[in-house]
DNA sequence: CGCGCCCGTTCAGGCTGCCGTCAGCTTCGC
DNA sequence: GCGAAGCTGACGGCAGCCTGAACGGGCGCG
C-alpha cells in the first residue's frame, strides 16, 4: 500500500514515516502542498495523511479540491486542531478519518489498518463491470479472468470513470483529473488514452457522447 | 438510509435518535444485543451505531461476530472508553469509525455523512418530470426507466426549458441560448430540434404557443 | 555515463454521425 | 376555406472523434 504523508513538522513527520515503514507500508513524505500535488501527479496513492496547517496553504482547501475533482483516495487528517468545528469541517470536506495531535503511533497504525481493510479487506473489494473484475486496492484489472496491465495515466482515467459510473464526464473534467491544475494542452491526449483503454478493456467500456464527453458504459 | 442504533443509555439514545431523524435518516433504536440481532435478521441496515458497554455483552464481541460472518455493514462505535488501547481494539475488530462520549451531535452527523458518502458515493439529485427522470450532473434522461440519449444541442435546448419550467420561451430566446450570440440562423432550426426532442421525450413534454414560442408542459 | 525500454504526447489521415437546411405536409386561427 | 405558422422526413457537409505511427523524455540497468 502506497501512502503519501503531508506534514511540515520534521520531528513528527519522521516519527510517522518510521512507524508506517515499520508496518511494512511504503511512504512518500512531503512538507508542502505543491510538493504533494507533484507527487500525486507522478504516483497514485492508496492513502493520504494530511496535516491541516502547512506553510503554503490550508489542507482543508487541498482536500476539497481533491474531492471536487472526483479523487476518492482515502484521507486521514493529522492536526493539532481539536475544536469540534474543525473536525466537522474536515469530515465534511471529505476526510475519511481524523487524528488529533498528539496521538499514539500505535493508534495511527490501527487507523491505517482500518482504512486499508475498508478498501482492500473482506469479503471482496472486487468490482465487476461486465467482463471486467477491478481490484481498486491492488490497482489491477482482469478481463475474462486474464490480467490486463494498465499504465498510470490509464488507471487515473479509468478511476475517474469508476468514481462516477454512468455520469457524463467532459474532456475538460478528465484533463483536470489527470493533470492537477495547469495543463493548457490543446491536443487530443484524452482521446488517445480513451482509445487505448478501450483497446485493453473492450470497446463497450467507455461510451462517447459526441460534443459532450465520455461516460462509463453499462456492463 | 436505514440506521440501527444500539445504545442502552436512554437519554443519549433519544438524543442520537432525534438528531439522526432531524438529518432525514430513518433509525431503529434497540438497547440490547439480542434485540439488535433480531432487528438485523428482519431488516438490512446501511449503518450501525454501536455502544460498547451493554447489559447483555460487550459490543466488541458482537462486532467481531458480524465481521467473521462476512457482514460488511459499516459500524461506528459510540463509547465512553477513551483509552487508546480500546480504540485500537474497536478498529481492529472491524469498526469503521469511533466516537468517544461525550461527543457533539453535529459531529455525529458529520461522521454519518462521511460513512454514507464512502459507501454509496454521493448520488446526484434526480429531477422527475412526469415519466422523465433527469440527472443534470450526469447529463442523462430516463423515460419510463429507459435511458434516452440526447445529443449536445438537444440537451442544451432541454436544459433551457428545465431552467424555467412552465415559462414561455420565444424562438429568439432559445436561439440565443443555443448559439453564442453572434450566429445568425435563418431557418427553422429550433423547430427541428424541438421536434427531435419531442420524439425522444414524448410529445407532451414541450408545448407550442402559436406565434409566441414554446414552454415545458405540465408533468 | 550510455543505452534501451516504456510511457505520454503529438500528428495526420480517415470516418462517423450531428446539425442546419429545405421541401412538402399539417395544424391553427379567423 | 385561406393564409400563416409549425412539423417532420430526408440529406449533405463538416466538426468532432478515432487510431496507427512516430517522437522524445525519464528511468533503470549495465
UniProtKB/TrEMBL annotation, chains A, B:
Residues annotated to bind DNA: 124-218
Modification 4-aspartylphosphate occurs at: 51
Coiled-coil segments: none
Record bears the keyword Membrane: no
Superkingdom as given in the UniProt entry: Bacteria
Annotated ranges, domain OmpR/PhoB-type: 124-218
GO molecular function: phosphorelay response regulator activity; transcription cis-regulatory region binding
Location within or outside the cell: Cytoplasm
GO BP term (any one): regulation of DNA-templated transcription
InterPro entries (UniProt xref): CheY-like_superfamily (IPR011006), OmpR/PhoB-type_DNA-bd (IPR001867), Sig_transdc_resp-reg_receiver (IPR001789), WalR-like (IPR039420), WH-like_DNA-bd_sf (IPR036388)
A Gene Ontology cellular-component term: protein-DNA complex
Annotated Response regulatory domain residues: 2-116
Keywords per UniProt: Cytoplasm, DNA-binding, Phosphoprotein, Transcription, Transcription regulation, Two-component regulatory system
Descriptive protein name: Response regulator receiver:Transcriptional regulatory protein, C terminal
Organism listed in the record: Salipiger bermudensis (strain DSM 26914 / JCM 13377 / KCTC 12554 / HTCC2601)
Amino acid at each position: 500500500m502506497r501512502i503519501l504523508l503531508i506534514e511540515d513538522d520534521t520531528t513528527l513527520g519522521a516519527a510517522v514515516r518510521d512507524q508506517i515503514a515499520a508496518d511494512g507500508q511504503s511512504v512518500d513524505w512531503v512538507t508542502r502542498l505543491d510538493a504533494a500535488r507533484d507527487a500525486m501527479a507522478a504516483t497514485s496513492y492508496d492513502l493520504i495523511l494530511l496535516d491541516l496547517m502547512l506553510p503554503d496553504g490550508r489542507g482543508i482547501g487541498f482536500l476539497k479540491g481533491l474531492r471536487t475533482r472526483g479523487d476518492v483516495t482515502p484521507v486521514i487528517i493529522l492536526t493539532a486542531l481539536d475544536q469540534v468545528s474543525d473536525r466537522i469541517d474536515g469530515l465534511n470536506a471529505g476526510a475519511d478519518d481524523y487524528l488529533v495531535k498528539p496521538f499514539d503511533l500505535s493508534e495511527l497504525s490501527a487507523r491505517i489498518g482500518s482504512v486499508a481493510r475498508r478498501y482492500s479487506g473482506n469479503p471482496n473489494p472486487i468490482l465487476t463491470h461486465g467482463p471486467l473484475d477491478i481490484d481498486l486496492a491492488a490497482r489491477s484489472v482482469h478481463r475474462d479472468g486474464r490480467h490486463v496491465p494498465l499504465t498510470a495515466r490509464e488507471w487515473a482515467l479509468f478511476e475517474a470513470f469508476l468514481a462516477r459510473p454512468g455520469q457524463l464526464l467532459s474532456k475538460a473534467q478528465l484533463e483536470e483529473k489527470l493533470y492537477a491544475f495547469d495543463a493548457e494542452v490543446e491536443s487530443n491526449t484524452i482521446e488517445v488514452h480513451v482509445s487505448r483503454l478501450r483497446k485493453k478493456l473492450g470497446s463497450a467500456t467507455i461510451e462517447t457522447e459526441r460534443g459532450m464527453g465520455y461516460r462509463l458504459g453499462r456492463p
